[in-house]
Amino acid sequence: MKNMDQVLLREWVDLDIEGCLPTGGRDDLQRALQQDAELRREQRALRHLHAALQESKIEVRGPFLEQVVDNLPVAPWEKSVATGRQPVWALPAAMVVLLAATSSLLLAGGTAGGHLMETASMLGDLIKTSLLAGSGLLFATWRGVGFGLEEMVAESNLGLLALGVLVLCLNLLFISLLRRRPASTTTRQEPPTS
Amino acid sequence: MSSAPIPTSDEELIAAILDGEQPLYSELVKRYQGRLVNYLYRMLRNEDDAHDLAQEVFLKIYGALDRFDPRYRFSTWLFRVAQNAAIDKIRRRRLKLVSLHRPDDGKSDGGDWELPGKGPTPYQDARNVERGLAIRQAIDELPWEYQELISLRHFGELSYEEIATLKEMPLGTVKNKLFRGRQMLKEKLSDFLTD
Fold first, then answer.
1. What is the CATH number of the domain that holds B128?
2. Are residues B126 and B111 in the same domain?
3. pLDDT band of B111, cuts 50, 70, 90
4. For residue range A147-166, what is the model confidence (pLDDT) as tens digits?
5. pLDDT value of residue B74
6. Contact B122 A56 (CB under 8 A)
């Protein structure tokens, strides 16, 4: 039991010199040190060891910092920093401002002419027409693609085969892109080590 | 560069550098250069190599700074990169020594390149030189794992927690191994550890 206590106290001496011993433990250690000459010798020897390790350090050479700074490469991330200085919200904000300015101009004109409701209705019609045109265009595009594919498949078996190969290639490309993504996520979490 | 105060934490400093304050990187180098050079000096046992490799590590870190994850401590990342670079360097050095100086016998135990380097001594007087060599030799004689931990703690000045993260060891194990490592050093250096 006494041996166990001695080992524990020596660990405490070590931790105390390292500044890692809790306050409560330090009080107990001080009491033990007062009573135990062997422990005091241990403490002295460890202090000398710490001092010797400290003294054995070398000085960094004068121009080291300058050499590092002078040799810094242009890092890939610096490009994104340069472009990233334009805030990402700049374009949407500009559009909102433009829209607001246009609306207020229109509204102001409408108020002056006493046709506020008419102007608002006109704006609504404009938006509605844009949406209709957009959806129509989308629908037409898909229809066009559909017709094209239908023709290709109907013409010959070779067309069907070509379509099959195209679909397979697109799937493989999609899968390879999906498989690459987790690897880059890992790199992000744990930066490169060599 | 703006005249804004230099961020206190490494993470804030890195954020500022990534935000366009590249000159602040010198502050980061200043914070770690002494610790890194000393750690690498312990690993490589040669002052020139330690300085050269420390420079390489700082340049490599700069290039990959955008991949730093602030959830981790910068110090553990830096020392992990340094540790890997040092191990690579030691391996290359061994290969070079084997190919240039030991082509024939095939019976060597691979020990001679572990001896201290012959670079300029860092110590000011004869007593310090003697003690310094004794310390170096005593650390070299420790098992590799203890050498690494002692180097990280006393030359890299990493905290116990940082070492535990870096070495992926439980904190208690780090404390215990460092205690045992220092006990071994104390035994080996008993002649020098007197008043």
1. 1.10.10.10
2. no
3. very low
4. 887 877 777 777 778 888 88
5. 92
6. yes
Q: Which domain holds residue B109?
A: 8-118
Please state the domain count of chain B. Answer: 2
Q: Residues A72, B59: contact at Cβ < 8 Å?
A: yes
What is the rounded CA–CA span in Å between residue A89 and residue B104?
69
Euclidean distance between the first and the last CA atom of chain B, given in angstroms as a whole number: 51
Within a domain: B194: no
- Window 115-134 of B, Cβ < 8 Å to A: 122-123, 128, 131-132
Residue B98 included in any domain = yes
Residue A23 banded pLDDT, cuts 50, 70, 90 = confident
Cα(B60)–Cα(B55) distance, integer angstroms: 9
Q: What is the pLDDT of residue B84?
A: 93
Q: How far is CA A114 from CA A111, A122, A124, A126, B35, in A?
A: 5, 14, 18, 20, 77
Sort out which chain B residues have CB atoms less than 8 A from A69's CB and list them. 25-26, 29
Which of B37, B55, B179 has its CB closest to that of A11?
B179
d(CA A151, CA A142): 14
